[in-house]
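Two folds, back to back.
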Amino acid sequence: MKKPFLLLLPAVAALGLTTQCQSSKPAATAPVTTAPTAAEVPKAKEYKYTTVEGDPLKTRIYTLDNGLTVYLSDYDDAPRIQTYVAVRAGSKNDPHDATGLAHYLEHMVFKGTSRLGAQNFGAEKTELDKIEALYEQYRGTRDVAQRKKLYHQIDSVSGVAAKYAVANEYDKLMGAIGAKGSNAYTSVEQTVYQEDIPSNQVEKWAAVQAERFDELVPRLFHTELEAVYEEKNRGLDNDFSKEFEALNRSLFKKHEYGTQTTIGTIEHLQNPSITEIKRYFDKYYVPNNMAVAMSGDLDYDQTIRTIDQYFGKLKNKPVPAFTPAKEDPITAPIVQEVKGPQAENVMLGYRFPGTMTKDALVLRMIDKILTNGQAGLIDLNLNQKQLVLEAQSFADLNNDYSTHVLYGTPRQGQSLDQVKDLLLAQLDKVKKGDFPEWLIPAIINNEQLQRTRSYESNEARAGAFVGAFVAREDWKDYLEQFEDFGKITKDDVMRVANQYYGPGYALIYKRTGKDTSTPKVIKPAITPVPVNRDASSDYYKQVLALPSPELQPVFLDYKKDIQQTQLKPGLPLYYTHNDENNLFSLYYVLDLGTNNDPKLGLAADYLKYLGTGKYSAAQLQQEFYKLGCSFDVSSGQDRVFVSLSGLDKNMEPALELFEQLLNNPTPDAQALKDMTAGILKNRQDAKLNKGVILSQAMLNYVKYGPKNPFTNIVSEKELKALKPQELISRIKQLETYEHRVLYYGPRTTLKAETVKASDSLSLEIPEASFVNDVLQNFHKTPAKLTTTPPAKDFAELPLKDRKVYWTDFNMVQAEILFLSRGDAYDKALVPTVSLYNEYFGGNMGSIVFQELRESKALAYSASSRYANADKLGRSNYQLSYIGTQADKLPEAMAGMETLLNDMPMAEANLNIARQSIRNSIATERITKSDVLFAYERAKRLGLDYDLRRDVYEQTANMSLSDLKKFQEARVKGHPQTVLVIGSKDRLNFKELAKYGQVQQLTLKEIFGY
């Protein structure tokens, strides 16, 4: 889930702050007269556009006659285009008596129109009108018996209406054209719809998007409402979400940022109004309040013609102005307490002006002064020194106000007030200007580096357009903010800090405990509705019949796409060339890991707290940050990755620093003692994280038994007895083992040769700086490298008995995994597995999603896949997931088991799945450093070629009988092991017993401590 913010400035949506649910360039087909719309193809129309000199994205901004803003950027890394359709209306525009409306509308826009998703709309509309009227009665009634009667009527009429509809037809259509990432999100300012489409499918995409934004048909309403209920329940189970809501309530007593939430209240969710949703759609979903943002392999002229052909028919109308409430000054801390089962932390929030102000720009600089991942005040003074378990800050930038949030997690025995005081002390340093002079220039350089990286992402490029549009910011001004950011001085920082970091702020204590205030969303009685999966609308057929140029897949040829040389025996160098920018990535890869030695992971963690003879640990981080480079060492179960990346011009000094650290780290006994204490506290906190409990602890226990990769850790006793030298020796040994070097960057190993580069780069590489020469100079290894020890893999359990394992956790929902062990990895099965997953449980148009969410409203999230092993010799697994309200657990489990044992057969769904796979592969291009890692994955599976070739060629002729044969042989009737996490006072153990012997797993059993 994400919220596109300013290009290369961090999005806070990753923390859960938005609600998300769901020519030589064949950028588009030429508009044709057979298009399924009333619009005629425009004649030789001239399209005016604006550009900005020096814009690295080469953006063209158009405004159609109806006011629609269109942003286009050509980037031909792959024949795909990232698209966003943004509506400048979000939850702050919700009526005060119908909160959550913008978000629920977002869900309904996926339901189709009078043509899309309709079989007999005339008959369906009669029933939909009845449903709308019944909901208005239901909303105005408080008598329990009468509400129950009305809901029964709604349920009954909904079943009739559904007979005339085609569920998920939008999702099917997007799948058929090879779209990826079909989804949307709602935030306070905006609602944004996203698709990643093949570049030859622009016309089909435009036709469907214009169709659904022209007309709202709220079909399948009551089952989708249940999905929103489940989304609400997920929020109730998320302590961070509750904490952030409390912070906004404190900061915004008058403004909708704090007086209402994007998901809405339970009261409003349980009393929805289709009429109000329609009014909102008619009011805000108009072209002069919308933007189309596209970045990818597109032809500007052709694309804008196609967009105008379809979107140009939308009718504009005046949009009501939003008048933000003016908040009163905060003169003292506003303290609130939130309780929940997860780990304790403290959160502070300060109110700032909106995103377009100069002070908000300075806020971004302050945020980087505090936390930039390497050399910020919080990074070094709190995290590096291990004074807290973890601390961070982030800026939430919105149109009317912004918020700066600081939060921290305590160490063992540390109070939340102590963490708060440490955070406030860092703000005091900012207010006094107590930070080094080089820090602001280094932040500016590193922001430029991050921007350069983001130019490689169509998602980031198009997301920047959305950010500018939502903020009502001219693209020229948007780009100039980077120049303005580079002019910020220490005096600016101190002025803004002293103005806004005063005595008034929001202070939220998140404590571990039972939240007695958590309400429960009541489960209504819902009769499953038909999904009509074999049906399709005439409109669906017409869109798919639109011609589009065929694109051919491009498969990797590892021998040609990766250059290889030997630095010395046992030390190969694999490299691919970066001809796009001046950034590099360098990796040392070792085939050993924590399965061989659990202390390897500790050594990797310890390294970041160490310095060298010349630099302390903090000074070392500062030096890397000055160079625009960063390093990492991480140990997985069977591989260690040692990495360095950043500005290629600084590769030599960065590599020299890094090699000094790897070969001569300075032991620090206090750092080890603090790290050990932190590890023990993290282990306690992991037991308070339901995601870790289910997906790591329980899953590993069931697959391998008590001794497994997850529990293969250093015991508390061993931890406390650890000496620095034990870990130092492991760090220094890394480069003595046989390993391989991966390099992606602008250098080459060829002698005295000019590398072909893009027009923006000048890459005359002097002989002394060829990558192999640099590595020979700085990557010092023994004359003879040590052979890595044999891999240690944990034996997989047979899983032949039906069993149910459950773990108690205080939560509103229940989460369930169905697990069965399959055969060992076999590359011959991969094409069939790919098609089966796409058909059965891979997306919103799949059988599982249709049945469990669309038809039966049993879950917000439901999926199933046959997961191929990632290593030769290991087993595949059938893994199915349901996240549902606890009182729906019996029906949800029965529904999933039925699907696993009796897979519905639908030719239409198979055709869509086949088209989706083939279109995706035909337009997928593995480039840049991904080429190197694709080769790494292939070698682990014993492959020397691109396996996508087999998938593409073989799925073309697969039939339903092929899928049925696979499903009956490898899924149907196989014993299922069921994993359940939920609150024991909400779980139905009588129902669980139907699936096998029920056994409770304690946290000590599954964590091993």
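---
second:
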Amino acid sequence: MNSYDVTLVVPVYNVEQYLQECLDSIEAQTVFERCEVILVDNGSTDGSYRLCAEFARRHANTTVLVRHGGGAGAARNLGMDRAASPRITFCDSDDVLPPTALERMLDASLATGAQVVVGAMETFPKPTNWAWKDHFGKGDRTFASLAEIPELVHSASACNKLFDLSYLRSHGIRFAEGVHFEDAYVGVCALVLATRLALVDACVYQYRKRAAGNSTMDAIWTRRQNYWDHLQLVEYLHRLGAGLPDSSRAVLDLFLVRSYQGFALRAPDLFQGAELEEIYSRCRAVYWDVSPDVVVRATADARHRVAYLAFITGDFGLFADRAARLHGLSVRDGRPYLTGVLPDRLSPLAQATPFTAHLEHVRQVPGTGTLRLSGRFEVCGMPMVRPLAGHLGLRVRGSRLSIPATQVRRRDMRNTRPDTEWGGFTADLPLDALRQGVHDLEFVLDTEGGQAVTPCLVAAGYLRGARVIEHGGTRVVPHWKGKNRAILMVSGTARPFGWRGSLLVKDAKHVLRRRPFWKQRLVRLFTKPLKPLFLGRDIWLFGERGDTAQDNSWHLFRHVRTARKRRGAYYVIRAGSPDRAHLAGLGHVVAHSSWKHKLLMLHASALVNAYDIDTYMLPDGWDRTRYLKHLNWRVGARRVFLQHGVTDKDVSKGLHRNRTGVDLILAVSRHEGRFLSEELGYEGQVEVIGFPRFDALVPGRGGRTILFMPTWRAYLTVASYSRDGGGREARQAVRDRFLASRYREFMVRFLNDPDLLAALDRYDYTLEFLPHYEMRAMVGEMVPDQDRVRIIDQNEVGVQEAMRRCDLFITDWSSTAFDVAYLGTPLVYAQFDAEEYWDGHYQKGYFDARRDGFGPVGETVEEVVGEVVRYMRGGCVRESEYLRRVEKFFEHRDRQNNVRVSEAIDRLVRGLNH
């Protein structure tokens, strides 16, 4: 006779790195001795079976079964068939059970007689806020049906539940085999059919959210089979719903709509022709009679509702190509709609919600009395692939102003989501028309049927670029209030205590109310009178990454401290950084996050960096969002982005002016300057004056070295600027991805190529491999143990020094190719992973290496090695065609870049240009 109270089934497949943690959590269960454990190995090829067998040898209550094929569903079904206990639960082999998980669910089952017991599920290493979690936090409870707790239907997993095994068997509830989403066949079916449910108000399951593409759910929208697998699930549940009471059927419909909304939205992007028609016809058969109210309740927004409107109305064209069908908005009762007149019951499906607008940039147009406001807007559900019919406007409440707005195309928005390409706007506001006071800003959509109005919200770029704008006797500060609503604070000469007095009053209120950064605001008030005496009148604060001094910032800082003798220039760097040696003798070097660094941040006139300012220049412990909201505007430091490489690729998603708040950005060529201005939004902020580091690019060739310097891949490493630092899960996941990547394959094959190694010997060259800063921890073991090949460290040999002394340069997509071309050194492009690179790292810009580049391009190891050997054989001489391209590309080659850049910053700080 079986003496166990519960059976735990664990399907196992190639999870060696996680399995032991899972097994340990099972062994640690407070009712482990009352539990039958069935481990089902599904044909693992790693060490998973060995771990299972060892666990079973130690525990008499554990059985290991082996089967091949059918996926996790088949493995769970096998365990369910072998189970002899009255109750059953499941655990995935990469997840973890809290110690009291089984005890809590078992106690609830015994106390209530519930057919299904449900506990809370948490995710790690990062939490997930599921809507169904709102049912927890109110104590243990019992319910007669799912209709009493409808959101729980979205808890489709079988792993945070304890089931009455006879209940599952009597209803024929089993997992689907050979498909994904197999959990829901048990989890959802058991919930909707149950006549007694118990909720345990405790976490009973910890779900591991893997950080990279080694989990089924990582590729949920891009894997074509997922669309068919989930549609099969939806059809199965739809058939089940036919026999349910109306209240239970309505709950099931919530799941049918919500769970497929992402697939319904994206299917036209992935499928076409007969396949798309089949998806549509099968979806229409499921959804044609679902209540519109259920669709509205279950979907995220109007963008996801359009497909269901198409299913209900029988409009295949709307489903297949919404951009062609939705081209005109209408407004009714102040709300925007995607289509014209619809029956009343369908109107909610066409309401364009949310309708939002964000301000991103406010600046004075140089030489005018005009304030230009820029931002983005979304009428959710409406594809912004062309200008909208109708008119846009901006309303300035308090000054009784309504000004027209112009819809603009945004490259960065297109790259984020193609159907938002025309979601930008600009509006010109006459400064003389502004009254004193605080003005709310509203975005107006004026189209057929009337006007729709929404408050303007602030974006990060708006906060980064917030400055006091002065025109005549008027001063304007872009600011915010409440829940991120954008406002303009306007003051004139007639104000009783003057402009400075009003700011002092704001500071005093901020301090007295103990609002974020109140201590810093107080320190700033007391130290400001002493700033010119102890720190300098105009403070330029320089930095790069927290631990480096090698790039444009270092070169410019050295120039202003030596040639220009600028007293107010300071450089921020980590105390233990080896690069502090580069700053020796220059003075004004400040330890990152020291009290002096914090003091300088309170009084800086300019923040100057070759990398991201907020990531690398804020002192440790300063919250970025709170700093931008409560301190940045008050200090008013100009932001200068020196760049750390030529912008030749489309980096608009991260570098668009409306996102960065940058006041001055450098370019080395007219092509680059035009691209930054026209495509990345830097109107009036671009200076084509060269990079400071180029002044030190004096060739030191002749050492018979070849420098191999590939750039990084965002999808193969955890970046140093990651705000959460990645964590162990993320680092392990990207490590796994790196080991299987084309990047690593090329590096290993190239560095160990016998023809390359033989040529290095034959022509007496040494190959130096300098990994990118972000890839240093990943690539060390790829370098062969050869005298002619060695890896070099940026902490020992600077990037510029390595480039200066090499006779031949090899890179893939790195912008350092421009530095080497400027030097006059021949180079070879090794562009071996174009599809992966453009898909996962950057997107194509204006520069094409084959058409515009400064050396030959190879796509395979053999091609690259062939070009490298050819250059070695010929003494590493650059061809005349590539020399012509260099002369055409660079605007300045006179070693006066530092002079021009320091003068540009001086003009910026003194307000002569902006």
